[in-house]
Amino acid sequence: MPHDLLFSLSGERSILLWQSEKMAMILEAFVGKLLDKLSEFIWGEISITRDVQDELKQLQRRIERLSGYLESAEQKRHENRTINNWVVELKDVMYDADDIIERCMIEGRILLENHPSTLAVRDTSSSFYSPGFLQFKHEIGKKIKELNDRLKEINKDRSKLPALKYSAQEGRVNTRQTFPSVIKSDIVGPKIEEATQSLVELLIKDANKKYRVLGIVGMGGIGKTTLASNIYNNKIIKENFPIRVWVCISQDFSETKMLKEIIRGGGGNYGKAETKAELVTCLSFVLSKRFFIVLDDVWEKDVWEDLLRYAVENATSTGRIVITTRDRNVAGSIVTEGAEIHHVDKMDDHSGWKLLCKIVFGDNDDEEEEISSLQEIGVKIVKKCGGLPLAIKTIGGVLRSKERSNVEWNKILKSDAWSMSQLQEQLPRALFLSYEYLPSDLKQCFLYCSLFPEDFTMDRGELIRYWVAEGFVKRAEGDTIMEDLAEDFYRELIGRNLLQPCDKYGRLSDVAGNYCKMHDLLRSLAHFLMRDESIFLGDHEQSPNTNPLSKLRRLSMVNTGEILEVPDVMKQQKCLRTLLVWRSLKLPMVENELFESSTFLRVMNLSGTRLESLHSIGDLLHLRYLNVSGTDIEELPESIGCLVNLEVLNLSGCGYLHTLPKAITKLCNLRCLCIEETPLTHVPKGIGKLKHLNHLQGFVIGHDDRRDDEGCDLKELQSLSRLRFLEINNLKRAQPSGALVLANSRSLRTLILMGEAMESPSNDEEEAMAIQSNEEEEAISIQRNDKIYNELSPQSTHLQKLKIYDFIGTGFLGWMMSSPLSASFPNLTSIKLCNCISFPQLPPLGLLPQLKSLCIWRMRAIKTIGPEFLGPRASSAATSFPKLEQLKFEEMTNWEEWSFGMVEGVGEERRGAPKLLPCLTKLELFNCPKLRALPPLGLLPQLTFLAIGAGAIKTIGPEFLGPRASSAATSFPNLEGLYFKEMSNWEEWSFGMVEELGEERRGAPKLLPRLTKLGLFNCPKLRALPEGLRHTTNLQELNIYGADNVKEINNLPSLKSLRIAKRPRLEHVENLDKLQYLRVDLHSYFKETSTTDADGRTEHLPQCTSHWLLELLQNAPDAMQNLKEFKLRCSLPLLKTFLKDGPNWPIIQPIPQVKINGTFSSYIRCTKDPPSFETNVVESEESMDR
Hints:
Largest sheet: 25 strands, mixed
Mean pLDDT: 81
Structural class: alpha/beta
Distance between the termini: 98 Å
Oligomer: single chain
C-alpha cells in the first residue's frame, strides 16, 4: 500500500491501535532471529555477487537501526495511533523479509548441490557463472532491493515520529532457566475451600434420591471450574461415587462425542453405537453404580434436557450431576428442573490477598515479615483484579517472577496496562498485564496456544514441537537443544498460571505434567491480541478481519466438513504460514490451489482427516512441521525430499501407508520422525544422515521381505547423537553391528526396544512344543538377540524411561546386571519389561535411586524373586527402591516364590534397619497362578492400593502383616483399597493374634486403619473372612464375587455398601448397622424353596439364600435403618414374590429405593419417597394360585 496512506487512515480502518502491543515485543524477538538469518546468508557457504551482498548488508543495517526504536514504540503505542500503525507495517515487512531471505537460502542451497564448483567459491569477481546462478542472482537482487525500498519508506515515516527514542539493543543470550519439578496450580482461596465443603455435604445427602443436579454459576475467571474440580476430587465424593466422569463442554461441542466421553469415563464401551439415541441408551446401562458427572463450561441449556436427562432417569443407580456455566439462561433452565444453584461470588480483598500470598510465597511461614511489608501495596493490586481468582493467580505469576520489593510491586500497580480501555469488557485487565510482563519469547508461545480448539487438551511434546517449528525458540548451545528450551517455556507459562496443567482427559491437575489446557478467558485475550495476523475458524467464529495494514499469517479450523474452505483473503494475500485443521474426520483431500497460494507455509496439521494423498507437498519449501497422523494416506511423493527445512514429520497411525520414499533421507533438518503404528515394510537406508533427529518413534529394522536389503540396520543409529526419544521396532530382524549402537546418544531420555510379539501359548504343553521345534534355529536366534540387545546398551545418564518388549535371549541384558545401576542410570524413573520370556531373574532394580514406576509383565522364565531384586546394599541401613511409587506384576505364569530376604525380619524402625519400598503407593499382582506366598507387605508404610491375584496361595496369615517391633505397631497404615482376584486355591485368611487385640487397649496393634474398600473376586475355596476384619473401622465397601464358600459376613460397623454375586452360599449376614447399599446377584439360581415366618407368611427364595437375605431385609426398619438402596438380580419366579400382592412385598416396602431385575427382561422398580411402583410383570405366583 502507498506509504502516504499510513497517516490518513481513519480510526475505523486502523482497528485496535493498542493491539500491536504484542507485535512490538514479539517483533523484537522476531527481528533478532531475522538478523541472525541475514548474517548466515551473507557470510554463508553460498557465493553471491558483490552488488547483491551490498544490498543485503544495507538491509541488515536498516533493520538493526529500526530495531533500536522498538522498545520506545512499545511504550508509546497505546497513546499514539500513528506509532501503532507504523509498528504494524514494520512487522509486515519483517515477515516478508523473513520469507524472502529464507527462500533465497533454500534455492541457493539447491543450486549449491547442483553446481557445487560454481556457488561454493567466495571469489565474487569470477567471470564465469552458470545460467541458473545468474537467474538466482538477479532474483535475489530484485527482491532485496524491494525490501530495502520498503524499509527506507518506513524509516522516513519514523523520522516523522519524534516521540520515538532510540535505544541500543544488547546482544541476546539464550540462557536456560530452571523451574521447580512440582508446580502447584490448583491453589484456591478460603472461600472456594468453604464452598467445597458445604456443596459436598449437599450432594451426598438424600442418597436415595434418584439424581440431583447442582449448577455452579458465575462470570468467567471467577473460579467455577476450580470449585467443581475441588468437589470432584474430594475424598468423600470419591468414597460415595464409584463412577466419576469429568467432561468439558466447549461452545461447538459434539453431542455424540460428549456422550461417548461419558460412557468411556464411566468404564463402559459404546461399541458400534453412533447415533444420539443409541448412545443415550448405552449410557443408561453404563450408569450401574452411583455416579458423579461434571459438565464443565456449559453454554447450551439443552445439554441436560436433551442429552443426559433420559439416561440419568433410566440408569440403574443414583447419581449427581454438576454443571458449571457463566450463562444465566443455562442456570435458569436447570432451576426449573429442581436443581440447586450455587453462585460463585467475587473474592473480597482479604481473601484475594490470602490467595495472592499463597501463589507468591507458598506455604513458607518464615517470610511473615516480608509479607507484612508488602501487604499494603499487595491489597491495592488485589483490588485492581476485581475479585477474580484467575486474575489474582496470573498477577501472582508476574509477582513471583519479580524481586519482592515495594519498588517492583509498585511498578506492577502503576502499570498502564490496568487502564487499557480498548480491551473487551469481559477480559480482566489483570490478564493483559500478566501478558505484558512476559518475555517476548514467551509471548509468542502463549499466543500460539489460542490456535488450539476451546478446552483442548494440549500434549506437552506436541506443543513444544510447534513452538520450535514456528521459530519461537532460538538455537541452543552445547548439549542443550531447542526442545529443552521450549520445555522451559512450557513450565514457566504454567508457573505463571497462563496455562493449566491437566491429565490426558482434561481434568485439572496440580502438577506440571505432560498435558495442559488454556482457560477460555486467556484464550479470548490471545485471540483478541493476535487477530490481525491469526484466526481461529470454528462453529462460532466470525469471518476473518481484513485490516489493510496487515496480513493473515496463521489459520486454525475446526469441523471443516468434506471441503477445506480457506478464506479468499488468505488465498489472495499468499502469505499463510500456519494451517491447523482439527476434528475434521470427513476431509478427504486438500486442493492443489491451497498449496499454490500457500508457498510460505511452515506448519501444517491435517491429522485425523481422511486425507489420501499429498501430491503437491514438495512445493512447500518452507515447511517445517507436517502432521498427517491417523489419515488414510497411502503414499508420500518423492518430492518430499525437497522439504529441506522440514523439522517434524508425523506419520503415526497411517494404516494404509506401507512404504516411505527414499527421498526422506534428504530431510537434513528433520528433528522428529513419528512412524509408530504404521504398517511400514521398512525404513529406507540413510536415516543416519539426519544428524538433527532427536525424536525417532517407531523406527523399523530390516525389511518385511528378508531377501530385500533396502531396510535400515542398527548402524544407522550410531551417528544420531542428539536423540532424546528412541523407539525401535522389529528387532528380531536386526543383525549385530559389532559396536555399541547408542554410544554417541549421550542425552537419550526415553528408550523403547520392541522385538517381535509372539503368540501366547494357551498352556504349558503348547509352550514346550513350541520351544522344542526348530531348536537349532532358535538357539542361533537367541545368541544373536543377546548380542543385539547388549549392543543397544544406553550410554546416557539422562535416561528416564525404559521399555523392553518381546525379548528372547539367554538371560537378562548384561548392561542391566553388571555395572552399578545407580551410576549408570541415576535418572531412570520408569521401567516396563513385557513378554521377555527368557529372563530367569530380575536385575537389581532396587538400586535405581529415582525409579518411580515399574511394570513386569509375562516374564515366564522367572520362578523366584528374592533379595537380588532389591540389590546388594553397602550398609544395612541402605534403602531399596527409595522412590518407587507403583509396582505391577502381570501374567507371571511360572512365578512361585517372592521374598524380601533378610529384610523380612527388620522392617521395623530399628536402628540400622534397611528401608524397603518407602514410597510405594500402588502394588498389583495379576494372573500369577503359581505364586505360593506373599512377603510381609504390611510393612510398606505408604501403600494405599493393593491387588493380589496369586492362584497357588492357600493361606494368608499374620506373616502377610509383617513382624512388628512392638505390639503397638501398625500394619498397612495407609492402605485404602485391598482386592483379591483369581485366588483359586486360597482357603484360609487369618490375622493371627491381632484378632484378639483390636480393642482400644494400651499397646494394641492397629490393623488396616484406613481401609475403605475390600474386594474378593473368584476366590472359590475361601471359607471365611478373618475375625480381625471387624477392627477395620473405616471399611465402607465390600464386594464379593465368586467366593462361594464364605458362610458369614458380620460385625463390620462402618460398612456402607455390600455387593454379593456369583453362587453365594452365605448363611448369616448381620450386624451391618450402617449399611446403605445392598446389591445381590442370584441370576444363575432357579431352584427355590418356601419358608414360613413367625406370622405365618410364606417366603419364596432360592435355597442357597433362604436365611441370610430374608433376615437382613426383614431387619431393615430397625438394625438396617440406614439402608437406602436394594438391588437384586434373580429368576422370574422369585421376582414375582416381590410384587405388591406377593408374599415378600412387605420386606422391601420400607426400603427407599428398590430395583429387581429378573430373567426374560422382567423388572420391578419402586421408591418410598416419592411413592412409586413400576413393573412389567402382571401378577405374582401367589395371586395366580388364588
